[in-house]
Fold:
Amino acid sequence: MRFNGPTQQCTPTRSFPISALTTASLAAPDSTTPELQPLTLPAWAVQATPDVERNLVGMSRSGDFYAYGDSPDQPGPLVPALVGVVTDITISQHGANSRYGLRDYLDVTLQTPIPDVQVLLRLPCKASPHPVSGELLIPWSVRSLLAALQTIQLSETAIKIQPRKGTATTFIRVLPFSPEGIEQPEIRCEAIGGSRDDLDISVNHLRSQLGLPPLFPGASSSSGSQQPATELAAA
Structure:
């Protein structure tokens, strides 16, 4: 099953020089968006690279991005969008001490326009049964994000990532910037397939773009239905 339904209308293209991005870019490039201060990283969240501040961002059940707070029970402020260049994509496991046990998460690291500041977007990968077929499917948020990232040159393209709430789930919007720093329309493409094989293949493919080794050496396009994403024609 693949998603190829309508997306929101793209906002008009606007000039937004990458060199002029500030801390507010961790939110959204709108004058109406309140400026966000650099997020303070709690020690339990993620191990930062030396001399690099890495801010951890998750997605709530209601479909909002939020900064991790002092503990899992005390989330930080909402983050409307993320801006940067993808530097790493991986799968991590967390929750060994929770009642649910270990769970897989998709981790996408962005180098922000602020020197030595990175943002790590962490999305849950737990599959849920389809309401009709009962087939276990990876969340649409993960599937739509991975598909959009396959259509661009990751290490050469600054992007904006933000959630887009549907009627029953949340998708992820990806809007690239031109080399001149002009925000481009939202990438429109089919989501990757919903199986675990599709997830593994996509992660391997994107990591190869970044010059990183595969996480799942046994995964191949012949073992799943996922194919490289292609952009849909604009409406």
